[in-house]
Amino acid sequence: MDGGKTGEDAPESVKKFRSIVNGFKQSIHKQTETQNMNEDIQDIQNLNGVVHRIKQFGRFIIMILTNTEHPGTKSVHDYFARNSLDLTNLTDEERDACKHYVKMDIFTYPFDLRPGHINSQSKVANA
Known about the structure:
Elements: H1 12-33, H2 44-65, H3 73-82, H4 92-108, H5 115-126
Helix pairs in contact: 1-2, 1-4, 2-4
């Protein structure tokens, strides 16, 4: 997929996918707000940990979308299932769109919690 579908014209399953990914990112980001008061939440080590967890989540999603077996994918698959989305039942078009949004929402913009902003940035980059 070339990433041409924006959030507005994407299939409902893809919108749900992005919402679930965003919820996961938010939960990881919130953990930085509850750090020990003696720690600097802006410390690069803390931020590296956030990025690592978000990107690991993305790698497991890609494994699921490409039918790659790995022990870590079960918990990610279950996370999506608890949020009413079965990644193994997506159409090829939905699967391609989800791969695109893993690249954008997780790998390119791991700190951005606004899918609409990510869409606008990818439009600028593709212009």
